[in-house]
Amino acid sequence: MAVDIDQKVATEKKLAEKNAEIAGMLDSIADGFYALNHKWEITYFNKTAEQVLCCKREDVIGKNIWDYFPRSREGKFYEEYHRAMREKVVVQFEECYWPLEVWGSIRVYPSADGISVYFVDITEQKKVQEKIYNNEQNLSAIINNTNDAIWSIDRDFRYISANTAFWERLRAKFGTQEGALTRGDFDKDRFQEWAVYYQRAFAGETFKIVRSTETPEGKVYEEVSFNPIRNKNQEVIGVSCFARDITAAYLHIQQIETQNEQLRKIAWTQSHELRLPVANILGLSELVDQENCGNPANRELLKLMIKSVTQLDQVIRKITGYTSNPTSPS
């Protein structure tokens, strides 16, 4: 009898030591961990779970999880825990415990006594994901709130991204759906033209071009920017492009340049062609015999003055032609 009691004590001691070892291991892991029995009572709660869920194990041990954490009935917790308990299957999911605003990546394992729950606090990851998502939405709103076409391609000429204006423009030209455009949709000359631009950008060059296109409404001018896309090793992995309609501005600049050219012609005409007849008239007027109007020499001087006035009139008409018809030839 004494031997049996000693063996029992020894066995219980070993069991207690093993349980303490397991408890120590569970407390040392980075994952949160707790165990539930078939009555949904919490039978174990490690230190990480205490820290993440802001409670003490002595306060939760023996408590019904749905009573102690009533908001855990919301979301996926209630449904997935019951499924693991009922079907004896491993389940994994992500969910937020909203009273604490804590996101967890949760794995639930069935056990002989109930279920074991391991979870990792992924709150910061979710915040980063949310920030990235919000930034993407803001960027999407910005690039789609314009009539300018914005797109990017990889080194195989496949589209990485594009805004609504770009796809609408291609849909109008080719009748293709978003993302469905292929190299075969372009004629050879058009593809070769753009391939030259892309290859310049693939080589690391940032540049702009102005190209014109004939439309039923007339000629349209576009300014297209090409910018290399680099990875963290500064290798060019694609090209981003920005095309905007500059027809009004381009034609206005052309008009200003034409007007400036006409002004240069007028200035040259005034400084070279206009001075000669004026100088002739002034010189001849000095030779007129005002004391003797009947002097025969006056008649010859008058003829020369009339000739110079005629030349002056022609020059004035030429200048007037520049101002009334800016495209007239010189």
UniProtKB/TrEMBL annotation:
| Boundaries of every PAS domain copy | 18-88
Q: Which SMART domains match?
A: PAS
Q: What is its EC number?
A: 2.7.13.3
A GO biological process of this protein is:
osmosensory signaling via phosphorelay pathway
Quote the Gene3D superfamilies the UniProt record gives: 1.10.287.130, PAS domain
Reaction it catalyzes? ATP + protein L-histidine = ADP + protein N-phospho-L-histidine
Name where it mostly resides.
membrane
Please report the name of this protein according to its UniProt entry. histidine kinase
